Request: fold
Amino acid sequence: MNIGMTLTKFLLEEQRRLPGSKGNFTALFSDLVVAAKIISREVNRAGLIDILGAAGSKNVHGEEVQKLDEYANTTIIKTMEHGGHLSGMASEEMDEIIKVDPKYPRGKYLLLFDPLDGSSNIDVNISVGTIFSILRCNPECELTEKEFLKAGAEQVCAGYILYSSSTMFVYTTGHGVHGFTLDPNVGEFLLSHENIRIPDRGKIYSVNEGNSRHWLPGTSLYIEKLKNDEKNYTARYVGSLVADFHRNLLKGGVFLYPADKKSVSGKLRLLYEANPLAFIVEQAGGKASTGDKRILDIVPEKLHQRVPLIIGSKSDVEEAESFWKYQDA
Ligand code: P6P
Reply:
């Protein structure tokens, strides 16, 4: 592991390697890294909040204690809005887009994010994550929701922060996928996983089998096939998308949150969950689809629209897709 390589230094070196890059990214990223460190500190203290006052109450300092997903949301907005790199933001926690206050300069990017995905797991000390996606935007434009409704293929950057036994920052700008692990003693994200590649096929499948009574025929047939496969697939499902995705990215495997009779469009959000992870997985050699359409090709119609998601090792996703002709059976 290259112990001296911080995320900021790596970005500067990547920027030097990329023709025409002006370093706006590096500055934007350093603001995002600050937000990640602040959220990581709070997530890792979560178990102590009861001592300091549960969410919605006042802590020992007499301050309102926020729910962690609200805290993460506020932290990202407050850390990112004044840097001059963004024209606006969209958050899973906010119905409407967030325009940068006119007192701050507008930038040429849009940040879309799920501030703390899987936050229902935080109370039981299970990994959670922040997911983000960055799109280009004309800083002179009249900013409306329409500017955010771009196909995932137009993303210029995507990533996630996984708050787990350690805190990891994983991102792509279209030049490979790179992972950094936070050293809390140094207060820096250090390069730990350069150029992550997902195995072409894995032995892990991740799906909520509690939904099997709602599954469409193709899903049931595919999962049944995995259970009887001589490769002895194993089931792993944390219930936190970032944790399930990250494990499969490193070890290989497939995650599914398909459309079913209960969730006709799936559960996960296109713009700030499926799109960023799809960009990452394709950059790592994997695949992401709805079952019959590439995630990154979908032109969004609504900011918070949901999408069915099958994502992971290329051969596993393609095998799942081969069962989708039975979905309407
Ligand atoms: P279910 C967490 O609430 C989340 O949004 C994702 O992190 C996770 O993959 C999914 O929902 C779990 O949903 O219905 O299986 O509990």
Residues 24-52 form the longest helix (29 residues). Helices lie at 7-17, 24-52, 68-80, 217-227, 241-251, 270-283, 314-322. The mean pLDDT is 92.
